[in-house]
Hints:
The protein is an alpha/beta fold.
Amino acid sequence: MHLPGRRNGPRVxxxxxxxxxxxxxxxxxxxxxxxxFYFNGASRANDILREALRPYPADVTIATKVGPLRNxxxxxxxxxxxxxxxxxxxxxxxxxxxxxxxLVYLRVGRLAKSGTDPVGDRFTALAELRDEGLIRQLGVxxxxxxxxxxxxxxxxVAAVQNRFGVLDQGDAALVDECAAVSxxxxxxxxxxGGHTSLAGGNLQKVAERHGATACQVAIAWGLTRSPSIVQIxxxxxxxxxxxxxxxxxxxxxxxxxxxxxxx
Length: 263
């Protein structure tokens, strides 16, 4: 999301964005999260990844999302119908320069959860594209437990991508549900997403104890919280990337987890 630059912000220098993507893989990242609707003007995340990583290493999973509709100005204005998902998948195939997509999420509700909205028709459309050989695995994003059950009745779900983090643990029960059935859980906004400050409080106390940053502790907290969690923090900075990747080696103990809270 960060590689093209955020909406209403400056574009990231193309060379820097490409360097960040390449360095992430060099440092051991094996899961890259993207979407065709991650763009800032003419700068697009999928184009950057294609330039940086293609041919993609066999052990790197490229995951993308379809569902939200975004106009050229960057405004999210709606959600794709079932019959609009094939063109969205085909766009990702073209932009990433691949014949098959490793993992495709059906993203629902944009940023607001829509727990009463059925996902069956849309998820069925993606399952049909998987059966055609255009997608390897399917996921759902921004869903409730009920929507996950609905999707799993149609086709296997490999991953869930919902908002979750040390300061936003509302989906704790769903994280545990995913772990129980070996579904990966990819938290978005694990570092607050610019909407929640990680500064101060017990998070800072734990960070000082380990000689780390609050962001590193937030990443490590998720990895410690559940075996199902795969962290996907975004950045357009090489220095920040190095810090994020180093967080995987930060070992939090029971006292740390108790201080941070775990629900």
